[in-house]
């Protein structure tokens, strides 16, 4: 290479004192010698590799969560709708897998950049202390890329040389899962050593982040998918590494609602990132993709009733029995008053009919209002006036109010909003929304963060490990640590055996949803049947508002709920079999290896 092109990082923002690192004027072309001999250029080369960390929204805006029991994708609006549909139909093949994810090519691209870094800095004259810190970051990044590859495909080729992306073929074969996992551990150990003593900065790879990746890798190695004989030594290794992260000085942030808004809450966040207008989720950001369609937004992803049922009552009881349709008689739950006395996280993380009011900033329609997902319980012919709603005009923005809500299908049918997608469950996710920002703006710096690792995950990981080791008392202690966060303060878990496993997995789903966990958890547990292929998808099939009980000034009358199957959802087919716990390797990658790469079982021609 005669010239080496550098794209300066815009995606990662660290603490305020480090923002000047990202304000270097871009150069069209920087000589290779300058890139690898100048510490500022080299650090920016390393920062660029951070972009190889797969965001939680890929594939599409909902990530893999729309392929689980806790969320459903709106295929009308989803970038990867075809790939998600094919996966859920059991039809993912080596020829169409890239419609769902192109992670093989993406991760190996960044692995190549890491390999170039190590080759070009060998014998470098850069100050050893500075260079060691950067080496630690790159060892972590290369480990992270391989972790993503092996949890997707199993064993993959371990490549530590900088093949050119223009090479027509690579005569490489796959390493075993165990060899790849050990490589991740070795890279993490190198990162831990090299980053020891490096001052932490918000958003930057640290020694503790490397410890977290090592612990996560060991948990995956111990899990049923990768540990068919249930080797206890693997669980013990995972326990030691996870406990080291727990003892590294992090604490649970008091308020769970603040975790996903800037600034990064570094007391709990082991590794995370913030955004600029140019680096956030594609298009307009989380707001446009997660706000309900009645807010003139895309609403790509919605919670299922199955997930809603995972949120316990504030007394610690589930609203439904395990079948999901029979009300738990000990819970105090009322299907016609379902949103009272729930886990505090329910109100923070879910928009349900009547939730709010929330701030909607959208030009002339800026207002505060409820999530008005309801139809008129007693409509006049063709929903014509006069209306019973005692509030004819919204007191905040002077909009006309109707007996049907502004998030209802009728509101769309009457031409009052441009969107109302065919797939609706009656709920939408609230966890990552920024109600201080506009619905859609290319220029606004939204305040959301993405957390890749945080202490609550490691508390839950440790609980799972202790259950596997037969230490239920210790497992309950760590589950309850998460539940006793001051802003949550749920009753302690006291269950055992299979009930403890259910409580743990539900707690994990509630606490970590939208954090790129649930899909991979179901795979490593070999728990896909009934969770990934859950069928039918249930939700609120009808919500109606009876205004006869409302007086002037009341925002709501009496809601009536009907629960059932959402027929518009793309069907999910029975789990195809154990081979489906790994993705097929793209056929083009096998051909580029001169057929040296062996396809995963179940996907061969």
TrEMBL record:
UniProt key word Cell inner membrane: no
Keyword tags: Cell outer membrane, Membrane, Signal
Domain SusD-like N-terminal: 89-219
Localization terms from the record: Cell outer membrane
Predominant place of localization: membrane
RagB/SusD domain boundaries: 268-603
PROSITE patterns (alphabetical): PROKAR_LIPOPROTEIN
InterPro entries xrefs: SusD-like_N (IPR033985), SusD_RagB_dom (IPR012944), TPR-like_helical_dom_sf (IPR011990)
Record flagged with keyword rRNA-binding: no
Family: Belongs to the SusD family.
Protein name: RagB/SusD family nutrient uptake outer membrane protein
Organism the protein comes from: Cyclobacterium plantarum
């Amino acid at each position: 290479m005669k010239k080496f092109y550098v794209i300066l990082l815009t995606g990662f923002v660290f603490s305020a004192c480090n923002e000047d690192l990202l304000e270097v004027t871009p150069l069209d072309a920087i000589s290779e010698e300058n890139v690898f001999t100048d510490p500022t250029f080299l650090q920016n080369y390393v920062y660029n590799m951070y972009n190889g960390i797969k965001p939680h929204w890929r594939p599409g805006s909902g990530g893999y969560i729309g392929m689980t029991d806790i969320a459903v994708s709106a295929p009308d609006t989803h970038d990867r709708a075809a790939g998600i549909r094919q996966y859920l139909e059991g039809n993912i093949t080596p020829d169409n897998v890239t419609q769902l994810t192109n992670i093989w090519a993406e991760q190996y691209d960044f692995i190549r950049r890491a390999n170039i870094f190590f080759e070009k800095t060998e014998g470098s004259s850069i100050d050893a202390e500075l260079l060691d810190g950067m080496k630690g970051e790159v060892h972590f990044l290369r480990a992270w890329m391989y972790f993503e590859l092996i949890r997707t495909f199993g064993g993959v080729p371990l490549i530590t040389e900088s093949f050119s992306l223009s090479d027509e073929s690579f005569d490489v074969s796959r390493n075993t899962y165990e060899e790849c996992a050990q490589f991740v551990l070795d890279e993490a150990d190198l990162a831990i050593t090299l980053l020891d003593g490096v001052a932490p900065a918000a958003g930057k790879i640290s020694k503790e982040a490397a410890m977290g990746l090592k612990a996560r890798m060991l948990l995956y190695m111990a899990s049923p998918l990768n540990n068919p004989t249930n080797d206890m030594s693997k669980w013990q290794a995972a326990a030691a590494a996870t406990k080291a992260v727990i003892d590294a000085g992090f604490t649970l942030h008091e308020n769970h609602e603040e975790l996903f808004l800037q600034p990064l809450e570094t007391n709990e966040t082991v590794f995370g990132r913030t955004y600029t207008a140019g680096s956030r989720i594609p298009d307009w950001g989380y707001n446009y993709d997660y706000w309900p369609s009645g807010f003139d937004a895309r609403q790509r992803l919605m919670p299922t009733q199955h997930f809603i049922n995972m949120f316990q009552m504030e007394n610690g009881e589930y609203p439904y029995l395990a079948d999901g349709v029979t009300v738990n008689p000990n819970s105090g739950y009322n299907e016609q008053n379902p949103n009272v006395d729930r886990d505090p996280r329910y109100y923070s993380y879910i928009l349900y009919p009547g939730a709010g009011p929330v701030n909607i900033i959208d030009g002339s329609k800026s207002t505060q209002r409820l999530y008005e997902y309801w139809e008129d319980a007693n409509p006049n012919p063709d929903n014509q006036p006069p209306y019973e709603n005692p509030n004819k005009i919204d007191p905040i923005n002077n909009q006309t109010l109707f007996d049907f809500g502004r998030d209802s299908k009728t509101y769309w049918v009457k031409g009052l909003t441009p969107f109302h997608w065919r797939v609706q469950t009656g709920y939408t996710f609230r966890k990552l929304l920024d109600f201080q920002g506009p619905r859609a703006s290319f220029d606004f710096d939204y305040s959301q963060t993405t957390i890749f690792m945080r202490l609550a995950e490691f508390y839950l990981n440790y609980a799972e490990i202790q259950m596997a080791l037969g230490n239920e008392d210790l497992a309950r202690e760590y589950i309850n640590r998460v539940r006793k966060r001051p802003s949550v303060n749920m009753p302690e878990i006291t269950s055992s055996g299979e009930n403890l496993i259910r409580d743990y997995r539900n707690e994990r789903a509630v606490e970590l949803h939208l954090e790129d966990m649930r899909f991979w958890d179901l795979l490593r547990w070999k728990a896909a049947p009934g969770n990934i292929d859950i069928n039918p998808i249930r939700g609120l099939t009808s919500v109606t508002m009876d205004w006869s009980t409302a007086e002037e000034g009341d925002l709501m009358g009496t809601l009536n709920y009907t629960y059932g199957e959402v027929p518009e959802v793309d069907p999910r087919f029975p789990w195809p079999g154990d081979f489906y716990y790994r993705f097929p390797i793209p056929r083009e990658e096998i051909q580029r290896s001169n057929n040296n790469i062996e396809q995963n079982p179940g996907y061969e021609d």
